[in-house]
Amino acid sequence: MPSVKGKSSPRLPHEHDESADSQTSEPRPEMKQAHADLERGLVDTDRSPVTDEVYNRTLKSGKPTGGQAKPRR
């Protein structure tokens, strides 16, 4: 544990996240459920591939989308 002026002090967020002893927890119930769902043959319904495609096609390219709101008066 880090120390300040000889006294122990809590870890900073990045120190806690990167420490080896913070990675020893059991899998969360949500992750266990996700694993069980995939094992049963259920498919991932995440929409990120569609969202990524729209982002890459419109916003990332820098092309205006034409759907910009008009300024308020």
What do you see in this structure?
The protein is mainly alpha-helical and 73 residues long. Helices cover 40% and strands 5% of the residues. It is built from three helices and two strands. The chain has helices spanning 13-18, 29-39, 48-59; strands at residues 3-4, 7-8. A two-stranded antiparallel sheet has the order 1-2. It is flat and about 60 Å long. The N and C termini lie far apart (57 Å). The mean pLDDT is 79.
| Low-pLDDT stretches | none
Mean pLDDT across the residues is 79
Strand content: 5-15%
What general form does the structure show? Answer: flat
Largest sheet: 2 strands, antiparallel
End-to-end separation in angstroms reads: 57 Å
Determine the structural class based on helices, strands and strand pairing: mainly alpha
Order of secondary-structure elements: EEHHH
Record field, number of beta strands: 2
Widest sheet: strand order?
1-2
Q: Give the helix level as a range of percent.
A: 25-40%
Rg is 23 Å
How many DSSP helices?
3
Main attributes of the structure:
mainly alpha, single chain, two-stranded antiparallel ribbon, 3 helices, 40% helix, 73 residues, 2 strands
